[in-house]
Amino acid sequence: MTLSSRALQRPQSLQEQAYQALRSAILSGELMPGQRLVETQLAQKLQVSRTPIREALHQLQQADLVVEDRGVLKVATFTSEDASKLYECRLALENVSVRAACTNASDRQLKQIENLIEKAEKILAAKPTKLTSFQLLDLDYQFHREIAEGSQNEWLVSLLDRLFDKMILLRIQTMLSNPAVLEVRWEHRQIYDALLARDAERAVTAVRDHLIASQARVVRELEQIQQGQNAV
């Protein structure tokens, strides 16, 4: 029997399950930026031994969602300089993404993008809460990922997925102190209108303007947070 003659069938390992559970907790804000991560406590919560937790934390370190600070593992936090560099990467990748989506996105995908904008608009019309902030953050992620899917370039989607995880954690840092950083519905509308018209140049300009404006908001908020921490 050759290796190619039979696909291995097995459930996810405990390490894989622990990784997915911890990643989800980080990206949903259950585990907050800067929060200390203790193996024994996490193992108790997930009802597993420390070994899969340790392996999962190592994997999260490789994904830059967890960092080691003087021997202590913590959920990653980002500086204003980190934010600027992450946005530089987004500008480059999403330029390619939206240009390709103008040509390749299906009508169904364009409708889904519009639906995401409408959901965000309904949430913004209600009284803001911590829950609505996380809902808006998730819709923002879905909006940009749907555009990436519309590019029909799976390699580009994979690269953006790795970047989006870091961006979500970065945005959690800023939105808790100022939910207004998630007010992007008009900018998203501009991008959608260009996509609907299949106007690549207009779409690229709209994405660039949106990301530059978002970068300015996030960097400004991070600088204020850092100044407050330095003053303590």
Automatic annotation (TrEMBL):
Pfam families with a match to the protein in the record: FCD, GntR
Superkingdom: Bacteria
UniProt keyword Transcription regulation present: yes
UniProt keywords, alphabetically: DNA-binding, Transcription, Transcription regulation
Ranges for domain HTH gntR-type: 12-82
Protein name: GntR family transcriptional regulator
InterPro entries in alphabetical order: GntR_C, TF_FadR/GntR_C, Tscrpt_reg_HTH_GntR, WH-like_DNA-bd_sf, WH_DNA-bd_sf
